[in-house]
Amino acid sequence: MAEATAYEEQRRRQVEANKRKLEELQLHHLSAAVREAAAAAKPSPVKKRKARVPLDAADAVMQPLRRSGRVANLPDKPAYREEVPAFARRIRRTYGRKDLANRVYATDEARSYTISKAEDLEQELDSRFPLFIKPMTQSHVTGGFWLGLPTGFCRKHLPKRDETITLVDEDDVESNTLYLAMKKGLSGGWRGFAIQHKLVDGDCLVFQLIERTKFKVYIIRASSYYENED
User: Dihedral of the CA atoms 110, 111, 113, 114 (nearest 10)?
Assistant: First the structure.
């Protein structure tokens, strides 16, 4: 009994000694601080983001395009495209295409004959109006249908920009063509004139400028060589 009492007394003293040491070290305050820090560092529950619902196709069309404030007030970028001049559209027509496989080439004799006749006609025409002689080749009357004009004549007498040039045949029937000033030749409308007048390789034309943008056109046909030969 005495031993038990002595043991309890010793244990009590040891507990009190431990308490005093803890108070001196203030370990209980340090433990509380660690618990508070751990509680503060605990992450908060993650909020679920709502799934983004795609716009319906019709809604997407209706939504205006979002642009930054720096460019919002700028005009939309223009769509560039090539425009055909109004006067060029007016002279475009549809004609039957010639069969290129059946091209007829003039003989040297027929070609020389038509040029000689054109030179004779040149002497008879009014000299007050400038003119030039143009022998026809395949590129003028089939395929490409491009009629290049004499450079010196164009620089001296024709407009400096693209314009409509009217061709008047010997029956006073008028046809409009497109004159390309930079290329110095007739483009749109010339094909129709060539087909309508049945021009072929070896024919020779005399162009007389009777007005600023109007030619009187005389045609000497290669077929006349063969007629006269008979």
Answer: 120
